[in-house]
Specification:
Helices cover 54% and strands 14% of the residues. It has 268 residues and is α/β, with parallel strands linked by helices.
């Protein structure tokens, strides 16, 4: 692949551009970014020195792969606007939530190469978790190229498109749940006398460290939890109190509500 176009210079679009350029995967001169708002493009030009344009057709025409980093309520119009310059050899990558491969194909044609992707907001700090679902027109080489893009600013895995709603619940929206957890942890620390700024630092580092233990040790989260819970100690007391308040079920029900909403949005 010689040139990548990113349609949409919002937070996620800029995170993708930063990931591929900062990792050395694609050079700045081989990236073109399109957005209708000049001030968004100015930020991209300043930070990454890429080519920019307000003309999406121009960006699509010159690219081998195109990432549509736009909201689901505008993806249909954006695709329709550039349909006539999308040839079947170009790789079409969409990160629009609740927008299926078939819905994308209806706008640009069923013979095109399409990858549906669901990243999450930790992309902004190079720690995204992205799920990729390719259609039947994507070759192994194409897929490795797209995986490379999303691995450049976090982790990426291929999943069946039927699991995309589950992905929305477990990773797409889940940073919000974790932020709520950290806020509650900090509030409790403030209640017991810790300065708020310090409380947020302790809470955030603890969540970060715990996540890293799961990823790097390969141990089951329950096993890691048990390692912290000494008999008759402080941690098991906290666990008991959390369980009595329905902590795990609250997380499960919240996530299921997220999945249900994702399914509902896809029907509209």
């Amino acid at each position: 692949m010689n040139k990548l176009a990113v349609i949409g210079a919002g937070n996620m679009g800029r995170a993708i551009v930063g990931g591929v350029i900062n990792s050395g995967l694609i050079s700045a001169e081989n990236v073109i970014v399109s957005d209708p708002f000049e001030y968004c493009l100015e930020c991209v030009e300043k930070d990454y020195k890429t080519e920019t344009t307000t003309d999406s057709k121009e960006a699509v025409k010159s690219a081998d792969a195109i990432i549509f980093a736009v909201k689901p309520n505008v993806i249909g119009k954006v695709l329709s606007d550039v349909k006539d310059v999308i040839s079947e050899d170009k790789i079409i990558i969409s990160i629009a939530a609740a927008t299926s491969i078939d819905a994308i194909s209806e706008h640009i044609g069923f013979g095109n190469k399409i990858v549906r992707v669901m990243p999450n907001t930790p992309a902004l700090v190079g720690e995204a978790m992205s799920a990729l679902s390719p259609n039947e027109n994507i070759t192994d080489k194409d897929l490795q190229y797209v995986l490379g893009i999303f691995n450049s600013f976090g982790k990426a895995e291929v999943v069946s498109e039927s699991l995309m709603d589950s992905v929305v619940g477990v990773s797409g929206s889940s940073p919000a749940y974790v932020f709520m957890l950290m806020e509650a942890m900090a509030d409790a620390a403030v209640l017991t006398g810790m300065p708020r700024a310090q409380a947020y630092k302790f809470a955030a580092q603890s969540v970060y460290g715990a996540a890293k233990m799961v990823l790097e040790t390969g141990k089951h989260p329950a096993e890691l939890k048990d390692m912290v819970c000494s008999p008759g100690g402080t941690t098991i007391s906290a666990v008991e109190a959390l369980e009595s308040c329905g902590f795990r079920n609250a997380v499960i029900q919240g996530q299921l509500a997220c999945v249900e909403k994702s399914i509902d949005m896809a029907k509209k």
